[in-house]
Amino acid sequence: MQKYCAYQERCHSEVRHKLISLGIYGDDLEEIIFELIQENFLNEERFARSYARGKFRIKQWGRNKIIRELKARQISEYCMRMAMEEIDEEEYLQTLKKLIQKKWKEYRGMKNFERKGRLARYLSSRGFESELIWAELKKGSYE
Q1: For the chain, how many structural domains are there in total?
Q2: Do the Cβ atoms of 95 and 60 come closer than 8 Å?
Q3: Helices H, strands E: what count in the chain?
Q4: 75 and 48, same structural domain?
Q5: Most-buried pick from 26, 43, 81, 134 (CB within 10 A)?
Q6: Domain end marker among 55, 70, 87
Q7: Do 45 and 82 touch, CB atoms closer than 8 A?
Q8: pLDDT of residue 59
Q9: Is the pLDDT of residue 143 over 70?
Q10: Are residue 75 and residue 111 in the same domain, yes or no?
């Protein structure tokens, strides 16, 4: 399990599922997880921070989608707050603007209100906050 955790950051639920798939249950499972935590192979905060950084910078996900996925992995509220600190506000807004400019060109031939509606749905599905989306769309600097 040390190799499994050393290969990439893992959350507790991933390790638990892996151990169960290997047929390890009960006290043995808990003991292995405890040892991995003690030896710092398993760290929920480190996982959450790494996950948020990666999904934002590589996949260009918004905060809402990252939080939703962290909740699905049973990450604590504290660790989610720490993970959100990894996302620089300026970089976040620049990513939003870049996505708007890219998609705006793809929706050519539509009326502006239809384009904006599609863009808002797309960006919302990527996890960006609707207030930020509409504030940026109202500026109109992407045309």
Answers
A1: 3
A2: yes
A3: 9, 0
A4: yes
A5: 43
A6: 87
A7: yes
A8: 97
A9: no
A10: no
- Condensed to tens digits (0 to 9), the pLDDT of residues 118-132 reads 999 999 999 999 999
Local structure of residue 75 (DSSP, 8 states): -
- DSSP for 99-140 reads HHHHHHHHTTTS-HHHHHHHHHHHHHHTT--HHHHHHHHHH-
Shared domain for 101 and 134, answered yes or no, is: yes
Contact criterion met (CB below 8 Å) for 46 and 9: yes
Q: What is the pLDDT of residues 9-57, one digit of tens each?
A: 999 999 999 999 999 999 999 999 999 999 999 999 999 999 999 999 9
Whether the predicted pLDDT of 92 surpasses 80: yes
One-letter amino acid at 118 equals R
Pair 52, 18 in one domain: no
Does the reported pTM lie above 0.70?
yes
Q: Which helix (H) or strand (E) is 2 found in, with range? A: helix 2-7
Secondary structure (3-state) at 54: helix
Q: Are residues 99 and 68 in the same domain?
A: no
Q: Please give the Cα distance from 19 to 13 (Å, whole number).
A: 10
Q: Domain range for residue 3?
A: 1-42
112: its two tokens: 């502006």
